[in-house]
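User: Can you help me understand a structure? I only have the sequence.
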Amino acid sequence: MTPAISIKGLGKTYAGGFTALKDIDLEIERGEIFALLGPNGAGKTTLIGAICGTVKVTAGHVSVCGHDIAADPASARKAVGLVPQELTIEAFETPWDTVSFSRGLFGRPPDPARIEDILKRLSLWDKKDTQIRRLSGGMKRRVMIAKALAHEPQVLFLDEPSAGVDVELRKSMWEQVRLLRAAGVTIILTTHYLEEAEEIADRIGVIRKGRLILTEDKDTLMKKLGKKELAVELAAAHAGIPPVLANFDLALSPDGLRLILTYEAGRGESVISGLLEKLKAEGIAYADISTRQSSLEEIFIRLVGEDA
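Assistant: Let's start by predicting it. Here is the structure, written out as tokens:
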């Protein structure tokens, strides 16, 4: 099957000489939720603009659902819905009017049943005739998504979809994204909430200084790059790490009651068993053990370094 997005050798250099994108290759499969992460100024917005046809590239090719953005821009743009970070909707219009108007802009015939379905899926049906200025921030964000879906795009870009939205509404937004994916829409999102990417993305891409430095299945990334910690609750306080444990990557809590072992995700079984055997052999009693894995945020900070 043709990928939803196919990018080959993409580059963008502005007239002043600044290179925003450098030799990017990327394929995003249909029905995938792909999270694009990167620090401010990394090139996320430029890359989205290049795919949507709003930024003219200086090298490479982009196709959307098989339509080349340069050779067939009209078909490529029809395949894409974009939800920008800014709330660009008329305050005195209603959700029904603004979604219907957006559908017409793409040359789609009127379809009240489809507009009704979109508004109901986004929990906006009871507000369909309410002026947008009277809606909450979370509802306005959902109107933006409804507007982007009006012309039945196959690919939806969400630029910071839950910016300025409280935790409860953010989780509701995540559920809406999952429902869209279940309906066959490919989702590409940028976000500064790494918890968001960790929660809903199938695959992660990290961009840094205009280069795509990593693309990886989320679960695989967590296993490959995620450090794990084993906390050993000691039965008695220790003044320092016992010398017999010097070969392990250990830290001792300030109160001397907890040993923290850091290890690579793939080496857990041998490292943990080795530590516990050593504790038993040396007569160092412990009351409990627990584990914790690095979050996506910690992995991201390590990948982008000081630019994060």
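Now, to help you interpret it: The chain has two domains: 5-222, 226-303. The first helix runs from residue 44 to 52. Let me know which part you'd like to focus on.
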